[in-house]
Each structure stands twice: as structure tokens, then as C-alpha cells.
Amino acid sequence: MPFNIALSGLNAASDDLSVTANNIANANTNGFKQSRAEFAEVFAASSESLTSNAIGSGVRLKNIAQEHTQGNVDFTGNTLDLAITGQGFFTLANSGALSYTRAGAFAADRDGYVGDADGRRLQVYPPLGGGVFNTGELTDLRLLTGQNPPQATSAIELGVNLPADAAVPANPVFDPADPFSFNHTTSTTIYDSLGSAHTAAVYFVKGAAVNDWTTHMVVDGTPVGGANALTFDSAGQIVAPAGGLFTLPPYPPGNGAADINLELDLAQTTQFGGNYAVNNLSQDGFTAGRLTGIEIDPTGVVFARYTNGRADELGKVALSNFASVGNLGQISDTNWVETFASGDALRGEAGTATFGLIQAGALEASNVDLTDQLVNMITAQRNFQANAQVISTADAITQTIINIR
Fold first, then answer.
1. Which of 89, 106, 281, 314 has minimal CB crowding within 10 Å?
2. In tens digits, what is the pLDDT along the chain, a chain of 405 residues?
3. Does domain 155-283 correspond to CATH entry 2.60.40.10?
4. Domain locations along the chain
5. 159-195 burial, b for 16+ CB within 10 Å, e for fewer?
6. Are 305 and 192 in contact (CB under 8 A)?
7. Helix crossing, 2-25 with 370-402: angle to 10°?
8. Burial tier of 8 (Cβ tally within 10 Å: 0-12, 13-18, 19+)
9. Phi and psi (nearest 5°) for 378?
10. First to last CA, the chain
11. DSSP state of 188
């Protein structure tokens, strides 16, 4: 009997040492979670013959539990390296099979798909536009390397202050080449449907009547439409046209692009005392752009940034969590799979509910504490030696009994 008990102790110590060895071997594995061996005593007595004087039959390995505690976050500077600070797992797909990981060392393949070194692709929620994502669907994250298409300018928003004490220009006939035929001007760059740039200038001319002005739009030196009347009230606010909006006639750029249809918004223009000042000037067009880089914000939104200043949303990193993380099924390459005991995957977004935030340009290190593991290794060694000594002692006792005459 002592032989079997001590043998179970040897096996337990060996299993404990194997778990410790695996932890030490993965001390530098990104996203690795250390394990611990959990043991239980063994009794040969059945439920019908329970007694408080029963001698145990040894020990058995009851469970190997992983400790899903946070590892240190190490910054790498690589944009596609991702770390989760808090709860959650990255969701990966390989030919439809889903797995989950905390190891965020991702890279783009030759087709632009982002995934790990083994071909598992990172899953994101597809964009619907306007900062909204379809959180009911998973798709592969793909980095598009093509140009960002241009957008023709359709609106110019201009807010200036026109001096209330301005004088009527000396020359009554407006001519953009004659500075004595207008009071003030400002310009901006607009774009046609091909992304070609054009210069649009707005001129302001003081009228003879109090609080009256006229504006002229000139694109590339060509007037677009005629004079547009502006009227202010005694508080210096625009009263005509309504809302300060002017719809201008189409302007043909002459390079094969579609006509430019502009709306001039002067709602923020005032007539106060003081100097002429441009307080706001913007337009909604842009030229074509080349990809300059990828950015991922703490909520997991993936942006593609282009030379034209645009930032397109490519998706939002999908995080997953489980009711019982400790019961996930372990597979190789620091990945886990869903099991019946773990419960169904709970999908979510970084920074919401119980999910942590995403740190781009960083990796989560292993949570192995080498000092603890070295102590465990010594303990397992001592346990093995002690159980081996029990076998040696039992052998000596048996030999003594055999030698009785």
C-alpha cells in the first residue's frame, strides 16, 4: 500500500514540475497565461463504508487551471501590435473556425488581411459610415492600399466680420482685377470631381444703403453668377438671404470633370464695428490621397489615413469574453476555443461593459512570475524526493519482514 501511495505522490510531483516547466518556458511568450496544478486526495472507501479512520490512497491531479491575470504591457511602436488592458480576447478566424487570444502580434499579409503568423485573421465589426459599426457581424480586417478617391466641393462655409463703417468703393463696377471696386476679399481652394484644385475667391462690396453689401464669387478668375445681395439688421446679423445661404450656378472646370455646384454659407458673417476679419473658412471637397498609415484608437476603431487629410474607418476590433474564462479550451499558439463549460462567446467593443481598452503599438507580456515559478520548482523537487524516500523506506520494511525466520 505505501508503494502505491508514494507512487501517486511521485506522479503528482512530476506533473507539478511539468506545469512549472511550461510556465518558465513561456515566460517570454506574448499573451501567455501561467497555469497551476491543482491536486486532490484519493480515498478507496465507498459511500456505504465511510469511516473517519480511513487511510488515504494517495493523490491525483484534479485540474490544471490557468490564471487569466493582466500581463505587463510592453510598447513596441509597431502599429499593428495590439494589447488589451482589462478583460476580453481578440477574435480570430481561420476558414470559419473562431479562436481567441491575448497575443496581439498582428501583421498584414500580401493581400492586406491582418492576422497572426499562422494565418488566423483578426475579426472586426464592419463600418456603416458616420462612426457607426455593424456589431452583429464579424469580418476580416483588411488594409486597402489603393488611393482614397477625391470628392468635389459642394459647400463653402465662410464667416467674416464686415466693418460697419466701411465706405462705398470708388469704382462702382465690380472688377476682381481692380482693388478700388471692392472692399474685401478672401479665397480658398476647392476641388472638382477629378480632385483637381481650383481657387475660389469671395469678394465683398459695400452698398450705398445702410447695412447693405453685395458678394461676388470668382473661380480661377472667372465670375460665377452675378452680384448677391447681403442685408444686415441693426445688431449686425444677416437677415437676407435667409440663413445666409447662396446657391451659385454650375461652374464648368474645363478639364473633363463634372460641373462644380457650389453653395456659399455666410450664416456666421456679421457686420460689427471694427476691422475686417476672417473667423471661419472651410469647404467639404478634397483631392485624391495615398495611404500614409494605419491608426487604431483605444476603442478599437481602425483608421486608414491618407495624404489628403482623410481618415477612413476600416472596422472596429471585435472583442470577446466568456462567463467562465477558466474553462476555455487551450490550443497551441496562445489561443483558446469556446467550450460548453466556458459558455458562449460574449461579443463587445473595447471600453464598453466589462471589456478593456486597446493599446496600439504594444504587446501584453506573459503573466509568469519567474520568482514564484522557481520556488514552485524547488517545492516540486522536494516533494518528489520525499515520495521517493517513502518508497525506499517501505522497501526496507518489506525486506525486514521477508528476512524474519
1. 281
2. 678 888 888 888 899 999 999 999 999 999 999 999 999 988 876 555 556 667 788 899 999 999 999 999 999 999 999 999 999 999 999 998 999 999 999 999 999 999 999 999 999 999 998 889 999 999 999 987 677 889 999 999 999 999 999 999 999 999 999 999 999 999 999 999 999 999 999 999 999 999 999 999 999 999 998 899 999 999 999 999 988 999 999 999 988 899 999 999 999 999 998 899 999 999 999 999 988 889 999 999 999 998 888 888 999 999 999 999 999 999 989 999 999 999 999 999 999 989 999 999 999 999 999 999 999 999 999 988 998 898 888 778 888 888 886
3. no
4. 2-69+366-402, 79-147+292-364, 155-283
5. bbbbbeebeebeeeebeeeeeebbbbbeebebbbbeb
6. no
7. 160
8. buried
9. -65, -40
10. 23
11. E
CA 192/CA 196 separation, integer angstroms: 6
Task: Give me the residues paired with residue 40 across strands.
Answer: 60
Which residue reads 447695412 in cell numbers? 211
Q: Which grid coordinates belong to 269?
A: 458673417
CA distance 192 to 258: 7
In total, the chain counts a number of residues equal to: 405
Query: What is the grid cell recorded at 378?
Result: 524547488
Q: Please name which of 335, 367, 315 lies closest in space to residue 118, comparing C-alpha atoms.
A: 335
Q: Which residue has the cell 492576422?
A: 115
Is 0.90 surpassed by the pTM of this model?
Answer: no
**How far apart (Å, rounded) are the C-alpha atoms in residues 319 and 356?**
9
